[in-house]
Each structure stands twice: as structure tokens, then as C-alpha cells.
Amino acid sequence: MNARWWHPLDDGRIQCDLCPRECRLRDGQRGFCFVRAREGDEMVLTTYGRSSGFCIDPIEKKPLAHFHPGTSVLSFGTAGCNLGCKFCQNWDMSKAREMDRLMDQASPEVIAETAVDLGCRSVAFTYNDPVIFAEYAIDTALACHERGVYAVAVTAGYVNPEARRDLFAVMDAANVDLKGFTDDFYAKVTGTRLGPVLDTLTYLVHETDVWVEITTLLIPGHNDSDEELHAMGRWVRSELGPDVPHHVTAFHPDWRMRDVPPTPAATLRRAREILLDEGLHHVYTGNVPNRAGEVTYCSGCRAALIERDQYDILRYRLLPDGSCPDCGTPLVGRFDEAPGHFGTRRIPVRLAR
Asked: Is 175 in the same domain as 273?
């Protein structure tokens, strides 16, 4: 399929304008992401309509704690990525080069119909970054909306302003990876820059109606210092506001960082306390057991409003208008009168070609 967001250069190359890498390509070349390529005088998206696989997940696994809790989401990704994270936890998809071996085929309409048939409230573009298959994600989100299904982007937020506007105009929720809070970490470990990610977060929170949550994967010795976490918390509090939920999750050795140990549970507990001390209202821990880090608390009286055991909803104490029954403080997010009960299941599915 012909791609969007590119322009010709005077030297005969064409420039991809999708993300800040702005790859400049001659005929036959592919961008850093591998899936956007030049064919003749056009740029094409080689993965349109082709997926690395589909799975039904709990929405909390994206992770989204304040977006229709307990409901199921049909998740899928493609191949490739525009980041070069050495710690990639989905490297078999994001670094894939044998795309014909990896992918099922599904049109946007088939994905939306499948979500309805399977009882999924949402479709999530995840595993690799939807930024690089934005045309496919946009068309799928539009097809989902026609059938009353929400669209969710799980993204690193590394995208240029025009494409960012077009992609998130059709998203209902986004979880944005804030992978660290130093330029040095972004440059050395992800091969990108911090600034565009902060710009995406600021844009989403202040200029769109997209529900936004943040995730930071904590890697021992790389982005987990008290100083960096305090700085991150201060920035989120001052630039985005205290109500944006923040998830701190545990790293496991993978891809090109197999020599780094797993994140201790104590690191996540410490990080959560630091972010709370900086004034954030909703901080969650993930990938390790920590009951306190799974609970949604009222930002007014700190009463427990949603209690979880990993992805299971154990208790749901919200008034019909989404407020605290004890003090009346509204809980930010997108909530239903009663939660879903999908639980902890993960169900791979195959879509008919």
C-alpha cells in the first residue's frame, strides 16, 4: 500500500516524514523501521493488512488501569520498529525481517468484526509500535469505531507532529512508553531522543481527548536511579498533571541486554514511592507481585476504589458517575458502572484470511 508522510528531495532521494529519524531513501531502500520502503518514486507500507498474530488480552495488560477496567482487548502488531531498544521485550516481532513467515493477513474490517464477535471492547495496536504502521492502524481504528469498538495505541511516542495528529485523531486511549528521563539513556539504549517523546505526551494530554497512561520499564543500573525518577515525576506532575496514571514495570534480560539482571521488586516499590512523593496520584507496579501497586486509590481521600489481583478485578467501588463513594472525588479515566470480568486469560486467535 502507498504510504503517507513523505516528500521528494532535490538529490533524487525521498524523505520519510513519519518519525524524527526522517530516513532518506533511494529506490529499493527501506527505512530504519524496515517496513516503510521506497518503490520507484513512491513510499509504501509493506505490512499493511499483515499481522504478527492476534491475541485477546485483559485491558490491564496494555497496561491501562483507568480505561474500562476488566474488559477484553483484541491485540495485534506487525513487524519492525523505529526504535533500536537494546532491551526489547518483543524483539521477535519488532526486529523481524522474515515478514512472510511471521504474519497473518487481516483487513481493518475483518479485525473490527472479529473484535465484535469475540466480545472485545477494544482493539490494541501493540507488540511493536503502531507509529510505523500508522496507515493500517488508522484504517482499523475507523473500522472499529463504525462497530462501537475502541482503539488503543501502545506506543513509544516517537513520531513527527503531522503523523502524530493523524494517528491519534482516531485513538481512544494510548499507553506511552517513557523509557527513561535522560537524553543519554535514549541515545545509548534506544537509539533515539527524549524530546520528541515528551512532545507527544504533552500533545496528547493537552490537545486531544485521548485517554493517556504512561509506562516506564525500569532497567537496573540504567534508568532506575532516585535522581532520574524524581526528575521524571516532577516533569509529569508539572507538564501533564498529577492524574495521568504511571506504570513502573520490571525488566527481564532479553535481546541485547541479557547480561543485565531482572528488576528487583524492591526497585519497583521504591520507584512507586518516589513518583507518589513527587505528587502523582496514580502509580502502579507491573510484572512483579505487589498488591499495593495494583490498587486504584481515590486522589481525594485515598480510599481503595478498584482492587486487583494482577488482572483480576476483586473489588470495584465507584458510583455510577465514576466518583468515590466516600468523598465524592471524581476518578479520572473511562469507567463503566460495573467492571468487566475477563480476568487473567490470554487467548491467541487466528483470523480467517
From this structure: yes
CA atoms of 95 and 88, how far apart (whole Å):
9
For residues 189 and 187, give the distance between their C-alpha atoms in angstroms, rounded to a whole number.
6
The total number of structural domains in the chain stands at: 2
Query: Side-chain half-sphere of 271: how many Cα atoms within 13 Å?
Result: 30
Digit-coded pLDDT (tens) for 147-167: 999 999 999 999 999 999 999
Which range marks the domain in which residue 32 is found? 6-45
Residue 79 is placed in which grid cell? 513487524
Q: Give the 3-state DSSP-derived string for 78-132, with helices as H, strands as E and coil as C.
A: CCCCCCCCCCCCCHHHHCCCCHHHHCEECCHHHHHHHHHHCCCCEEEECCCCHHH
Q: Are residues 33 and 152 in the same domain?
A: no
User: What grid cell was written down for 244?
Assistant: 495521568
Cα separation, 260 vs 1, whole angstroms: 40
Strand order across the 6-8 sheet? 6-8, 14-16, 24-25
Establish how many alpha carbons lie within 13 A of residue 126's alpha carbon, considering only the half-sphere containing its beta carbon: 25
Residues 124 and 14 in one domain: no
CB atoms within 10 A of CB 244: 22
What three-state secondary structure class fits 230? helix
> Using one digit for the tens of pLDDT, what is the confidence trace for 19-60?
999 999 999 999 999 999 999 999 999 999 998 889 999 999
What are 284's strand-pairing partners?
247
What is the longest distance spanned by two Cα atoms in the chain? 66
Query: Contact 116/144 with Cβ under 8 angstroms?
Result: no
In a domain, 318, yes or no: no
The answer to whether 79 and 47 are in contact (CB under 8 A) is yes
* 106-133: b (≥16 Cβ within 10 Å) or e: bbbebbbbbbeeeebbbbbbbbbbbbbb
DSSP type of residue 133: G
Encoded amino acid at 313, one letter: I
Question: What SS3 string covers 253-272?
Answer: CCCCCCCCCCCCHHHHHHHH
Above 60 in pLDDT, residue 179? yes
Residue 77 lies in a domain: yes
